[in-house]
Write a structure and sequence with these properties.
binds uridine-diphosphate-N-acetylglucosamine, UDP-n-acetylglucosamine1-carboxyvinyl-transferase, Chain
Length: 422
């Protein structure tokens, strides 16, 4: 395992390019199971979750080949396996996205039930109810989801739970419905850009889907899906993390290769918090001068502020000139980063799903422990602004979801070093 040593208060400047979206790429990789020909996904980020899913798919008879320009070619060479590897699934919840494609294309699946994780209880009841509505026979046996089905049949399915729509649940059910006989209507579907992008890939494979980007999806099942070539959308979470890095150090950088429209609410809040923004067709320049102004943040389903940058916002607001509140409607218990940010000198209290961040004038370096992917990113941002040295332990979390964030930040002028634990 390794840790990151950050020498804080270096100036950031220059231009950085966002990688392809992790959360779009993962469910797209899983639909290789559905295709009768090879799938070529361009702009797949080089990060650990992608590597883990390549291994998981490999054991399911889907061969992956890396081509230039971050293109990943996926092709089914053995359509028989139906059991997903437990150990790999434990490393990455998104592996659960193989369930829908396996049931739809191979008529069976055994996939271990994902446990809770550091950001809270993460049920999959909506995924299972959706697949059952399509005609899959689903049981839970010894901690596994065991699914069997003949040809699935179209149905009316509602996918929103008490916390709103489910993103990977929509991916799972949509990627099964495209091969079901007849019409499926999914209401309460996730409208995240990653789901729209998955839908675009499925359309390129020959699926019939209407309503992408709205909460109601109408799917007319087809008998087979072909291979296709598709470019993955840029990672809006990584782009937002990079913009927040400049906002916390009060510097000016440009992030290129982004879709500014995917960042609407994030950009609006950055402006409220005192950053000047210039927005181009596929880039955003941030110039953050003067004090950080306090701002209230509520993480919500798209188009709201994403829960996946709630922690990074909190790091930034810990240096604001006043008091901010941060809530998370998607994962109300996602506050493990609070104690670690406080270790760096932040003043954050949380109760009943609301964190109150009282801005301080400085953060001071310390050794902190990352508990999950986005909490790690928040600690890295806080380390950039803290006086002296910050050590962020358990870098494996960061590497799951960012393509070498430390290298990107170093190229902008940060000073951080990756070290192996003794
Ligand atoms: C995806 C993202 C994750 C992001 C999250 C919310 C991927 C690989 N991961 O996770 O980075 O933080 O969306 O934007 O894309 N829920 C249920 N029942 C279910 C499923 C979910 O009650 O069957 C609840 C969850 O506990 C949560 C809310 O619905 O409170 C949203 O979760 P969901 O959208 O499913 O998150 P993921 O798809 O797992």
């Amino acid at each position: 395992m390794s840790h990151l040593k950050i020498t804080g208060r270096r100036r950031l400047s220059g231009t950085v390019r966002a990688s392809g979206s992790k959360n779009a790429a993962l469910p797209m990789m899983a639909v290789a199971i559905l295709a009768d020909g090879p799938l070529r996904l361009e702009g797949v980020p080089r990060l650990d979750d992608v590597r883990t899913l390549v291994d998981l798919l490999g054991a399911l008879g889907v061969e992956a080949t890396h081509e230039p320009d971050d293109t990943l070619r996926l092709e089914t060479v053995d359509p028989k396996p139906t059991r997903a590897d437990d150990e790999l699934l434990r490393r990455m919840r998104a592996g659960f996205c193989v369930l829908g494609p396996l049931v739809a294309r191979r008529g069976a699946a055994v996939v271990s039930l994902p446990g809770g994780c550091a950001i809270g209880d993460r049920p999959v009841d909506l995924h299972l109810a959706g697949l059952a509505a399509l005609g899959a026979d689903i049981t839970i046996e010894h901690g596994y989801v065991v699914a069997r089905a003949g040809r699935l049949t179209g149905a009316a399915i509602h996918l929103a739970g008490p916390r709103g729509p489910t993103v990977t649940g929509t991916a799972n059910v949509l990627s099964a419905a495209v091969l079901a006989r007849g019409e499926t209507t999914i209401t309460g579907a996730a409208v995240e850009p990653e789901i729209v992008d998955l839908g675009q890939l499925l359309l390129a494979m020959g699926a019939k889907i209407e309503g992408l980007g709205t909460p109601t999806l109408r799917v007319t099942g087809v008998d087979r899906l072909s291979g296709a070539t598709h470019r993955v959308i840029p990672d809006r979470i990584e782009a937002a993390t990079l913009l927040l890095a400049a906002a916390i150090t009060r510097d000016s950088i440009a992030v290129t290769g982004v879709v500014p429209g995917h960042l609407g609410e994030v950009l609006a809040k950055l402006a409220t918090a005192g950053s000047a923004l210039e927005i181009g067709p596929d880039w955003v320049r941030i110039a953050a001068g003067g004090a950080v102004r306090p701002v209230d943040i509520t993480a919500e389903p798209y188009p709201g502020v994403p829960t996946d940058i709630q922690a990074q916002w909190m790091a930034m607001l810990s240096l604001a000139d006043g008091r901010s509140t941060v809530r998370d409607r998607v994962f109300p218990g996602r506050f493990m980063h609070v104690a670690e940010l406080n270790r760096l000198g932040a003043r954050i209290e949380h109760a009943d799903g609301t964190a109150v961040v009282t801005g301080v004038s400085r953060l001071t370096g310390a050794t902190v422990t990352a508990t999950d992917l986005r909490a790690s990113a928040a600690l890295v941002l806080a380390g950039l602004a803290a006086e002296g040295e910050t050590v962020v332990r358990h870098l494996e979390h960061l590497d799951r979801g960012y393509q070498r964030l430390d290298e990107k930040l170093n190229r902008l002028g940060a000073e951080m070093e990756r070290c192996d634990d003794d």
